[in-house]
Amino acid sequence: MEGIGMEKEVVFGEKNRIYGTLSLPAGEGVYPAILLIAGSGPLDRDGNVGNGKLTTNLYKELAEFFTGLGFVTLRYDKPGTGKREGNWMAAGMWDLVGDARTAVEYLQANPNVDKERIIVAGHSEGTILATALGKSMPLGGVIFLSGGVDNLFEALSKQRELGSNELLAKPVLGKFFKLINVAQKSENSAAKMMEKFKQSKEDIVKVQIFFKQPAKWYREHGAFNTREALKSMSCPVLAVIGDKDHLADKEVLAELPSLVKGKSEFAIIKDMEHGLRIQTEELSILKSGKRFKEILKRPLHPEALSKLEGWLNENYLANNHKEHVG
């Protein structure tokens, strides 16, 4: 372990200034780098929601782990979070991809970074953004954390299916839910709302009079073909997901080796949830809200960290080689 030599706030991007945190390993030298791309919602560079509404520190902990292994790391605020101006809900998928591209370019210009070994690590929605970024520019590697292969609409459909199946499995209420066809009604409602987003040209629309929704974000995600984008990716790819993840589909990761040009692998970690922490309780989307605060107290899953460390060491640290560029 290298240890963290320095951590500092940085600002980059000409038009829409992006605030982030750059962490450097201890000691002089040029290092490979990892860019962290956050999941959906108003998450700042550390994985938190402002004013103490939600504190996960997921990306802060991951950055500390990666920097300790010997990587420069960069994490940054999404629009309207942390120190950054803007409205996170008005940002479309391609706005977020543009932010990630700007961040990669910032790393490329850093004298402490090996430009040929810049890895993008996306979490949740960040796996889709990393996929889109990998299609548009060469990357030294890609890590999918709690996601990968499918697009947003497929992931949301799987979430609704899991929720409906749990409701139908209830001993007494299950028969009632089946009688009123709760699964089909859920899909019909989702389809109706998505159609409203597609017909709109606004960044944000209101549904049920009061509730604002990121229409531009949904439209752009719905039009993006993740599998086609993956076919152009020739850098090493690693996907890590938990078997207790209620938000991402584990089964689709089996498609990864047949999609990407470069070498790829995926790992399904036993007793790990969507936020990469330990969860020994059963998989349940209906109980996830009640468990959330308790799970946040738990450490990042050691088996997942071990998998990441082994893959990074093999591909980017062993013999200090530089041959992997996608």
Automatic annotation (TrEMBL):
Keyword set, alphabetical order: Hydrolase
Superkingdom, natural source: Bacteria
InterPro entries in the record: AB_hydrolase_Est10, AB_hydrolase_fold, Hydrolase_4
GO molecular function (one): carboxylic ester hydrolase activity
TM helices/strands, residue ranges: none
Keyword presence, S-adenosyl-L-methionine: no
Domain Serine aminopeptidase S33: 57-276
PANTHER family, alphabetized: ESTERASE ESTD (PTHR43265:SF1)
Protein name, as recorded: Alpha/beta hydrolase
Taxonomic lineage of the native organism: Bacteria, Bacillati, Bacillota, Bacilli, Bacillales
